[in-house]
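Hi team,

As requested, here is the filled-out complex form for the flavin-adenine dinucleotide run. I kept the field names the same as last time so the parser does not choke. Let me know if anything looks off before we queue the next batch.

— J.
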Amino acid sequence: MNPAEQGRVAVIGAGPAGLSAAEALAARGAAVDVYDAMPSVGRKFLLAGIGGLNLTHSEPYADFVGRYGARRAEIDALLRGFDADALRAWAGDLGVETFVGSSGRVFPREMKAAPLLRAWLVRLRAAGVRIHVRHRWLGWSEDGGLRFAAPDGETQARPDAVVLALGGGSWKKLGSDGAWWPWLAEKGVALAPLKPANCGFDAAWSAYFAEKFAGEPVKSVGLRMRCADGRAFERVGEFVITAGGVEGSLIYACSALLRDEIELRGEAVCHLDLMPAWDEAKVLAEVSHPRGSRSLSSHLQSRLGLKGARAGLLRECLDREAFQDPRRLAAAIKRLPLRLVAPRPIDEAISTAGGVYFEALDARQMLAALPGVFCAGEMLDWEAPTGGYLLTACFASGRAAGLGAADWLAARRG
Ligand SMILES: Cc1cc2nc3c(=O)[nH]c(=O)nc-3n(C[C@H](O)[C@H](O)[C@H](O)COP(=O)(O)OP(=O)(O)OC[C@H]3O[C@@H](n4cnc5c(N)ncnc54)[C@H](O)[C@@H]3O)c2cc1C
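And here is what came back:
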């Protein structure tokens, strides 16, 4: 059977999720047209490559799937079809060897996305996938056609099935702008609002602190957070002070809890352990050590090694009187309250939470409200920390949506 007889499928969005869907569909013999708004494909994927392209993670499956929190069960179903090992094998087939870094994260040997994307596009085109860049989807026409803003003006497509893989709402300049959200809402698709995930936060820094410490890394500190709903976070890591607040890996890892707490209460208070390698008794002993004529700052520096941004945070987040009381001071060094008031805007976030509820999809990832329309990738309502979990779920859900569309077309043919 020629591809057109198997069915014509439009995949909208040429990030990892859309291209995975296209690959699965082409393998099942469908005629696939991929559309993307940008002048070239996979821009966010390429940007991820600039940070080393953390493709996936090597930890045991139970830990891996636990990273998807409330959506663990739904992502588990997707990963059963395409997991971290399958992703590594897939990259290997494209000639891109991967390795496990010291943290268990998996990267391509070359630490770049471009060679992988190049090889993938060659293989997709060889499989007959047609890619149309500079085609911005504008929603549906009144009679159900797909409307695109294309270089020669508006055009329409009427495929047999559609896979939407439009990404989330962060880094708009790379193509994903969340414009699809109201169009799907109007069609009766149940959607969660898009929110920043893996994002920085604003803190009400004093002008002095912001000016002195913006850009300074805060290394090897503990961060603890407990939410009213029972979720808890505790880890040692690092983050960066910004002019308006905080960002960086430790903050991103806790960002879902911080964001939800701010949404609920108007602010979030987490606790920093400025000396995670010491217990409080040792901190107290050193703080209480006679300091002679030395200032408290130089005392803390020489007895505890507390200086720079960590010492600055202590001054910024603790009231003056506490510095006169060694017990309060030692307790604060181990448990310094850090008050955060707002997440940074979604456009600055690494990823997006919210989007199409899994409950709006059937087992093939087809929208119950729009038969023949399938969804994949970051536009679905799940979130995960950085560590390769984002890309892995995008690949897995893209593949599942592609196979789901192929099955649906086959069932329709009877
Ligand atoms: C700085 C940065 C670093 C990252 N690093 C990592 C990492 O190392 N590891 C990891 O796992 N994840 C990482 N991520 C996250 C990861 O890149 C994303 O989760 C992933 O790219 C999402 O894939 P997707 O296919 O769902 O969406 P996207 O990659 O966003 O692709 C969606 C595509 O849809 C297109 N599109 C959107 N709207 C329209 C429209 N109306 N018409 C036509 N086309 C449209 C866009 O142009 C885009 O090409 C990083 C993200 C950022 C911002």
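Two things worth flagging: The chain has a mean pLDDT of 96. The pocket of flavin-adenine dinucleotide is lined by residues 12-18, 35-38, 43-45, 47-48, 51, 53-54, 136-137, 165-167, 170-171, 175-176, 179-180, 350-351, 377-378, 388, 390-391, 394 (CB under 6 Å).

Thanks,
J.
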